[in-house]
Design brief:
Elements lengths: L13 H15 L6 H12 L6 H11 L9 H13 L4 E4 L6 E4 L6 E5 L5 E4 L2 H14 L8 E5 L2 H10 L1
Parallel strand pairs: 3-5
Antiparallel strand pairs: 1-2, 3-4
């Protein structure tokens, strides 16, 4: 099974390219590429929320209930773990809720974590790419990842705190 086709302009979107890479990795790992696994790859690639495996399972089960006779929790967990093992997703453990979350954004970036609601957002910081290159050059390590977390209160929780004061 292939990832969904090109967008109307004839160009392949970055999400489509990432989904294709994920599908190739699943094949390389010896897994059958089923519509359910493609759906997991697409949902992760499109997600901006750093979902848990359980959250993705619930989302996809509801979204595809009429399409798939079965959508197993094991398929979601195994697919995500395979993608992480093959370097196509990051596993994130967020302080506070302790849940294992997944992020398919592999570009150097930081994560903003709300200490109250546990929301996680990507924060693009161009300086991080330079930091990675500098650390790699100075340490001799071939770096394969970076994980930076900033902890604080998100704007919504700040507003809620102010309203309750």
């Amino acid at each position: 099974m292939q990832a969904p086709s090109k967008e109307s302009g004839g160009e392949t979107s970055p999400v489509d390219e990432h989904v294709r890479a994920m599908i190739a990795a699943l094949r390389e790992a010896g897994l059958r590429v089923t519509p359910q696994r493609v759906a997991v790859c697409r949902a992760l690639a499109e997600s901006k929320t750093h979902p848990t495996a359980q959250a993705l399972f619930e989302q996809l089960s509801a979204q595809f209930a009429s399409q798939f006779a079965t959508f197993s929790r094991a398929t979601v967990y195994n697919t995500l773990e395979t993608l992480a093992r093959m370097g196509l997703a990051q596993q994130l453990v967020v302080t506070g809720d302790g849940a294992m979350r997944f992020d398919s954004n592999l570009a150097p970036h930081a994560h903003l974590v709300c200490t109250r609601c546990h929301r996680v957002e990507d924060y693009a910081d161009p300086a991080l790419a330079h930091t990675v290159a500098d650390v790699s050059r100075r340490s001799g390590y071939e770096l394969r990842g970076l994980c930076v977390f900033y902890h604080g209160l998100c704007p919504q929780c700040q507003a809620q705190t102010a309203a309750n004061s």
